[in-house]
């Protein structure tokens, strides 16, 4: 079961979590989305300063460029992408909340729980009891 979950997670990391640029897209945003998704569990690589270095942009322009291309702030995209992985782990693994929080760069379980509730609109306990994906089945979130 764990190996199946890891294959699923690896494939999800290779996809964009939300609809990408609708028009006037350039290769740079596609590469940026891929980079973010492949490194979603490495918060140090997702900092604006690092993204600016990797994609040869100024630090002040990275967030502006991302929002212009994806119609969503960079920070929000990263949070929602992480929360989709949280959903997968909650429903398909035996990982503890502490393990999930640590793996995805949340400060602690409380931070994960509050963020989950804010964006998903339900508590982690309610989500697990319901047993259905919420963020994976929609592009728009409540926050």
TrEMBL record:
**Organism of this sequence:** Arenibacter algicola
Keyword terms, alphabetized: DNA-binding, Transcription, Transcription regulation
Gene Ontology MF term list: DNA-binding transcription factor activity; sequence-specific DNA binding
Q: Which residues form a coiled coil?
A: none
The protein here is known as: Melibiose operon regulatory protein
Residue span, HTH araC/xylS-type domain: 30-130
């Amino acid at each position: 079961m764990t190996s199946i979950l890891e294959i699923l997670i690896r494939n999800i990391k290779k996809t964009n979590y939300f609809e990408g640029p609708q028009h006037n897209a350039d290769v740079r945003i596609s590469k940026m989305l891929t980079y973010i998704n492949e490194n979603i569990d490495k918060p140090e690589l997702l900092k604006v300063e690092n993204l600016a270095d990797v994609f040869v942009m100024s630090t002040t322009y990275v967030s502006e460029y991302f929002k212009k291309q994806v119609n969503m702030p960079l920070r929000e995209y990263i949070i929602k992408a992480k929360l989709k992985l949280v959903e997968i782990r909650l429903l398909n693994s035996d990982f503890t909340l502490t393990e999930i929080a640590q793996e995805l760069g949340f400060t602690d379980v409380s931070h994960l729980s509050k963020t989950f509730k804010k964006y998903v609109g339900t508590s982690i306990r309610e989500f697990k009891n319901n047993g259905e994906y919420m963020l994976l089945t929609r592009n728009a979130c409540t926050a």
